[in-house]
Write a structure and sequence with these properties.
Layout lengths: L7 H4 L10 H23 L7 H25 L32 H19 L12 H15 L2 H10 L1
Helix pairs in contact: 2-3, 3-4, 3-5, 4-5, 5-6
Length: about 170
């Protein structure tokens, strides 16, 4: 018998399609909460002297932001492979952490993917020479894995394979 618990619809990949369910709003706010938190880190780091610790923190922050925007655009917009990504609306790109705290308009799918690619490339650059101190942290290899997923969902299979090999 299939489960009747709250997680059954998540496992069947149907829970995010219900406009009245709590899962879409929870997912939306959870990823934007992560984005807001890492935006605080990224924006606060401006002007700080470069160090291995700062590179580690910034690399992880950019990776989280890329991953979160990527998950949101995957869940709440059409795939760039099956739509006109230049006109299809994706999700808001959130980069600010200063007042006024206002939501942004939905960006195009192409713009969201461009931001994801920019962020994950920054993460890879920051993490390239960082020695990880904790296995729970995002590493250079993990960031390349995220980059592979972003490229894969865009249909850029050559880049996806290149990133996956590093991961």
């Amino acid at each position: 018998l299939p489960g009747t618990g709250w997680f059954a619809s998540a496992c069947k990949w149907t829970s995010h399609t219900s406009a009245t369910g709590s899962n879409p709003s929870w997912t939306w706010y959870q990823y934007y909460h992560i984005i807001g938190s890492v935006n605080n880190i990224i924006n606060a780091a401006e002007g700080m002297p470069e160090s291995d610790m700062l590179n580690n923190v910034l690399g992880q922050a950019y990776a989280y932001r890329a991953f979160s925007h990527h998950r949101l655009v995957q869940l709440f917009a059409k795939s760039p492979i099956y739509s006109d990504e230049n006109t299809e609306l994706g999700v808001p790109i959130m980069l600010k952490t200063t007042a006024p705290y206002e939501g942004q308009a939905r960006a195009t799918v192409a713009a969201v993917y461009a931001q994801c690619e920019s962020d994950i490339k920054a993460a890879i650059t920051y993490l390239k020479d960082v020695k990880q101190g904790n296995i729970s942290h995002i590493t250079y290899q993990t960031a390349n894995g995220i980059a592979a997923r972003i490229a894969l969902t865009k249909g850029d299979f050559v880049s996806a394979a290149t990133y996956a090999k590093v991961a």
